[in-house]
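Example record

One chain of 307 residues, shown exactly as stored in the release files.
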Amino acid sequence: MTTRERPSNVYTLKQALEVAEKHGYAIGSFSPRYTAMITPVLRAAQKMNSPAIVQISSKELERYGITPKQFADEFYARVASEGITVPLVLHLDHTKVMSIIEQAVEAGFTSVMIDASESPLQENIARSKEAADYAHARGVSVEAELGMIGTTDFVETDKDEELYTDPKEAQVFVQGTGVDALAVSCGTAHGVYMVKQPKIDYERLQAIRELTPVHLVLHGGSGVPAEMMAAAISLPGGGVSKVNIATDLELSLLGALGRTERMTNDECSALDAETLERGRAAVEATVADKIANFLGSAGKAERFELR
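Predicted structure tokens for this chain:
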């Protein structure tokens, strides 16, 4: 187990997704990217009475100049100072090396993602199982990826190639790894949709669901039409229960600040109080809108089954 004592409303990913799937909604996995933007994500979840996942990827940690401990410390500090009571998960997104996963687990993350999707199937299984065994022994959930989810901005991942998840391989993968959640490639992409348009292969999702009970995750939620996401969430037998949203939050922040270029985490934290609150208000509004009109999770916190 980690050395950090978790508040009673901070859950593992497995615990949270079991409830979401049972009640037919998805939990937003919001990536604030800057530690100063963790606060508006939490505020929106509290105001909307919705569970939420706060996440950051290892590539974002590197690009924005943050350590896993800094991110976790800010998360737990704001949960306390803001009086947040809705169910939460602290998640490490796309990560390829075990040392970062180990740092995150030690820092108090309750969920981690091992991304060995670029590797051949058997190597992906071996690396994902290693991460799952390590995390599970410490009370932490694990997400993995099968297939390759494309990107348009290279913030979270390195490559723009896309390879759809094979349902039969998904069955083998889940059985061989014991992971708690599976990110599947079925048409969405990280970043802003410009030339390519979002789509979701519902038949593929349904086939994966029929062959494996693992909780399903869609990355690249920014820019996907709400009706398209609603159909993915409501698939028979349990659809998508975790949706990653990152780009929309940063676009809201930069738009409110009148900027087009990303900042470092230190640059964001150094903004004057009035500017920072203007940015936070924009991010909070975006998160609240996603909860209400995209995920179906508004008001679901009160139905959350406590551990």
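Notes: The chain has a mean pLDDT of 89.
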